[in-house]
Automatic annotation (TrEMBL):
Organism: Moritella marina ATCC 15381
Residues that bear 4-aspartylphosphate: 56
Domain notes: Contains a C-terminal catalytic domain, and an N-terminal region which modulates catalytic activity.
Entry function: Involved in chemotaxis. Part of a chemotaxis signal transduction system that modulates chemotaxis in response to various stimuli. Catalyzes the demethylation of specific methylglutamate residues introduced into the chemoreceptors (methyl-accepting chemotaxis proteins or MCP) by CheR. Also mediates the irreversible deamidation of specific glutamine residues to glutamic acid.
HAMAP family documented for this protein: CheB_chemtxs
Record carries keyword Hydrolase: yes
Protein name: Protein-glutamate methylesterase/protein-glutamine glutaminase
Domain CheB-type methylesterase, residue spans: 141-342
Keywords carried by this UniProt record: Chemotaxis, Cytoplasm, Hydrolase, Phosphoprotein
Length: 354
């Protein structure tokens, strides 16, 4: 099997050495070189023709985002961002994902052998996955604004996502306009990033997007994002519904877990819900989406062609959890149609019973 060629870009000599050493431990990876800044990287990309790049998010004196933007326009290639896991670094990392980076990994703060080993395993996994994943294509944004003319009070849309999901969610949510049913979201993301992620979505969307930090009453025209260190559930509260945080163990290696959210939606909303599985690695959420379908909910999985990684939606499809497989650009119109159709059916049923 041909080795994956990797170029390491980082202004820190120590970090370049750590990344090179850890990547070289994988027999399927060949670190063909390292670069100290974007200018050095540009020359070495031409010279070494790497398959994937690891890129420091913040390099003093250098505009790494401008470099990434130019790279994705002129020579698109998989890029894994190596990020300092802080709230200050979150907006820069999210912008990098918007520009086309495949994924990011947090720099290790603990330099113990065990911690470096875990970091190295995740780094190698993401680098290899980046080589086989779909490169993000420049998509035509939806110009049509989508709304539902009426909102059934106890409807809910639940969405799960992982790798590639931050941008998939932005594309899905941007064209939605009030009035629209409430949306709950579990995106695999570190705890320092979820608040910045919700804020960034809110700046792009006409619906109100918030990170759930305590019990929230679920309202129409709102999108509720799970925080990066707690599971998100929904439950009935009196005559309404609320979002609840649950500090339990990781499920499917994730906290928050999509399965936890989807299972609660299946139990609380039943056939009044719509479930959507977006791009992501692994299989978290597949069982939960099946539970939603078994409870009468409408269920959708993003198709392989438009997914950065067809892991989670693919697992849902293989399990029989998805009633429909839809490209990312068509999911928002599909949701608007399903909401309208359901409202029309409810009104027709009510009229027939009079």
């Amino acid at each position: 099997m041909q080795k994956k060629k990797v170029l390491v870009v980082d202004d820190s000599a120590l970090m370049r050495k750590i990344l090179t050493t850890l990547l070289s431990l994988d027999p399927s990876i060949d670190v063909v070189g390292s670069a100290i800044d974007p200018f050095d990287a540009r020359a070495k990309i031409k010279q070494l023709q790497p398959d994937v790049l690891t890129l420091d998010v913040e390099m003093p004196g250098m505009n790494g985002l401008a470099f990434l933007d130019n790279l994705m326009r002129l020579r698109p290639m998989p890029v894994v961002m190596v990020s300092t896991l802080t709230s200050q670094g979150a907006p820069v990392t999210l912008k990098a994902l918007e520009l086309g980076a495949f994924d990011f990994i947090a720099k290790p703060t603990d330099k113990s052998i065990q911690s470096l080993g875990l970091f190295g395993d995740e780094l190698c996994y993401k680098v290899k996955l980046a080589c086989s994943a779909n490169l993000r294509l420049m998509r035509e944004p939806l110009t049509t604004l989508l709304t539902s003319r009426d909102v059934q009070e106890d409807r809910l849309i639940a969405i799960g996502a992982s790798t590639g999901g931050t941008e998939a969610l932005r594309e899905l949510l941007t064209p939605l306009v009030p009035p629209f049913p409430p949306i709950v979201v579990t995106q695999h993301i570190p705890k320092h990033f979820s608040g910045a992620f919700a804020k960034r979505l809110n700046e792009h969307c006409r619906l109100t997007v918030i990170e759930v930090t305590s019990e929230e009453v679920i309202k129409q025209d709102h999108v509720y994002i799970a925080p990066g260190d707690s599971h998100l559930k929904v439950q009935r509260s009196g005559r309404g519904y609320t979002c609840q945080l649950f500090d339990g163990p990781a499920v499917n290696r994730h906290k928050p877990s999509v399965d936890v959210l989807f299972d609660s939606v299946a139990k609380v909303y039943g056939d009044k819900a719509i479930g959507v599985m977006l791009t992501g690695m692994g299989k978290d959420g597949a069982e939960g989406l099946l539970a939603m379908r078994d409870a009468g909910a409408l269920t959708i999985a993003q198709d392989e062609a438009s997914s950065v990684v067809w892991g989670m939606p693919g697992a849902a499809v293989r399990l029989g959890a998805a009633m429909d497989i839809v490209s990312l650009s068509n999911i928002a119109p599909t949701l608007a149609t399903l909401v309208e159709r359901n409202i029309a059916n409810v009104k027709r049923t009510a009229h027939d019973s009079i």
